[in-house]
Design a protein that fits this description.
It comes from Vannielia litorea. The protein is of the alpha/beta class and about 500 residues long. It is about 45% helix and about 10% strand. The strands form 3 sheets. A 5-stranded parallel beta sheet has the order 5-2-1-6-7, sandwiched between helices. Strands 4-3-9 form a 3-stranded mixed beta sheet, with helices on both faces. The chain has a 3-stranded mixed beta sheet with strand order 8-10-11, with helices on one face. Bound molecules: D-mannonic acid. The site of D-mannonic acid has 10 residues, from helix 10 and helix 14.
Length: about 500
């Protein structure tokens, strides 16, 4: 039988600690993927037990799958939490409605303009926004931005939809919603605010000052390692709950959410789920992006080429695991001290989370969208390390691994897609030369990627070139061993 509600679950599976039908919708979430379900929807489910009309209308902007999976289940889904101690399942009831923008356009627009909607949260991935990192405004070349600039009255992208909805609400005398970015971007609230203000300036100038002055964009640090669901996930959910569940997700037991407490029209009691409310999220964001995500990207590129399918396999490869720890320490060294946080302990906890053998997190999944991830994960800390006179080796190794990955063929000669929004450009630069130094030169010169202090640094270029040459000549496994042999 298909899961469709909280009834009939075995004692071992917790259902919602509230009666879902008694709670109205207060949140529209854009980007109805696995991470949203495992993180914000789970936290909201816990918070709903403390009361409030905060159920979620989940929207996917493109893929019809999430709504097709959740719709017949009335929004209910199984969340499997896996840790070294074991696995447990819970059924989440926080999602009251699941829509896809294409077929359900009227419903999505109605939800965005409904007075009851007080928060619009987002997980659309780094590339989903269409932010120009150079200007902080819109990237005119981004397909959804280009579409929405041309037809702002029929938006399909984040900036277009949010500006349209804020304008419609203002015209109707309805207070603006709070915009809550939950993607792994630095100062994500400020970044999204800059995007919307610039988009408004170009399409609805009277809205620009209103958005800048009247709309809240709290920044957040979000963390929960959540692999894409697989057929095994669905089979495990059925075994644990007794119900078929097309929308099941698996994740780790750990979850962290640090949020700036700026919600002029209210919010769920997310602290009930362990969320931390602070005045300034930036130090937490930097810690997480540079340590967790930076190490993740490094191990994904090096691990994928070395033949490791999953992050837990990487951590079984002693020399590569040593490089992961080196990377975590190097990233930590770029961070200012953060009260109440022991960065060495945080690094150890991350290594343990990466090693979780029960979580099948594919290196190929993390390797995706490199040009969108490198700036905040590897390049910003590398620039800080350079300024502080710290060694650049860990970053040179990670960037060389990305460049080797960008070449698009495994060591067995098998081609794979990079899955990067700048795929064609990156691959042309990575494969257009046979000389290693030239490949490095061409990739470092990718417009808008590297900050000039790094791009023009001959020392960094040499360090990357030596490592990429080792990876190409002797293979990734040997390059990893050689790099790790250099550790004290
Ligand atoms: C990962 C993240 O896919 C990736 O790029 O680094 O999704 C990571 O698992 C999460 O940020 C963990 O919170």
């Amino acid at each position: 039988m298909r899961l469709a509600g909280p009834d009939g679950l075995p004692d071992t599976v917790a259902g919602p600690g509230y009666t879902p039908a008694d709670h109205g919708t207060g949140i529209v979430h854009l980007g109805l993927g696995a991470f949203h379900k495992a993180h914000q929807a789970a936290a909201t489910d816990t918070a709903l037990a403390a009361g409030g009309d905060w159920r979620i209308c989940g929207v996917s902007l493109r893929s019809p799958e999430p709504a097709a999976q959740l719709g017949p289940q009335n929004g209910f889904f199984t969340l499997i939490e896996r840790s070294a101690e074991g696995s447990r399942a819970r059924v989440i009831g926080a999602i009251g409605q699941a829509l896809c923008l294409g077929p359900d356009r009227a419903g999505v627009l109605a939800a965005l303009t409904a007075p009851a909607t007080r928060i619009v949260s987002l997980t659309v991935t780094e590339k989903g926004y269409g932010i120009s990192r150079a200007t902080g405004g819109v990237d005119e070349g981004h397909p959804a931005i280009a579409h929405d600039l041309a037809t702002p009255e029929a938006p399909i992208g984040v900036a277009g939809l949010l500006v349209w909805a804020l304008k419609a609400r203002r015209a109707a005398g309805v207070s603006p919603f709070t915009v809550l970015c939950c993607d792994n971007l630095p100062e994500n609230g400020r970044l999204l605010r800059g995007l919307l203000v610039d988009f408004a300036r170009r399409t609805a100038p009277e809205m620009a000052g209103f958005i800048a002055g009247e709309v809240a964009f709290p920044s957040t640090m979000v963390d929960r390692i959540t692999p894409a669901a697989t057929p095994e996930t669905l089979a495990a959910a059925e075994e644990m709950t007794g119900f078929r569940d097309e929308a099941a997700v698996e994740t780790e037991a750990f979850s962290q959410w640090v949020i700036e407490d700026r919600f002029p029209t209210g919010r769920p009691a997310w602290e009930a789920a362990g969320a931390m409310f602070v005045a300034d999220v930036k130090p937490y964001e930097e810690m997480k992006l540079r340590m967790l995500n930076g190490a993740h990207s490094m191990l994904a590129y090096a691990g994928f080429l070395a033949g490791h399918r999953h992050v837990s396999d990487v951590m079984q490869d002693a020399p590569l695991a040593a490089l992961v720890r080196r990377h975590l320490a190097a990233a930590a060294a770029t961070l200012p001290p953060l009260e109440g946080v022991d960065l060495a302990a945080y690094a150890e906890a991350l290594a343990a989370r990466f090693a979780n053998p029960h979580l099948k997190h594919a290196t190929y999944q993390i390797a995706m969208d490199g040009t969108e991830k490198l700036p905040q994960r590897l390049l910003a800390p590398a620039a800080d390390a350079l300024a502080a006179g710290q060694p650049l080796g860990p970053y040179a190794f990670a960037l060389a691994a990305w460049m080797r990955y960008a070449m698009g063929t495994t060591e067995a000669g098998e081609a794979y897609a990079l899955r990067d929004p700048r795929e064609a450009e990156v691959q042309a630069r990575a494969t257009g030369a046979s000389d290693t130094a030239e490949i490095v030169e061409r990739l470092m010169a990718l417009p808008g990627l590297m900050p000039p202090v790094l791009r023009n640094n001959a020392g960094l270029r040499r360090e990357i070139t030596a490592r990429l040459a080792a990876m190409r000549d002797g293979g990734m496994a040997a390059a990893i061993r050689a790099e790790a042999a250099g550790l004290a």
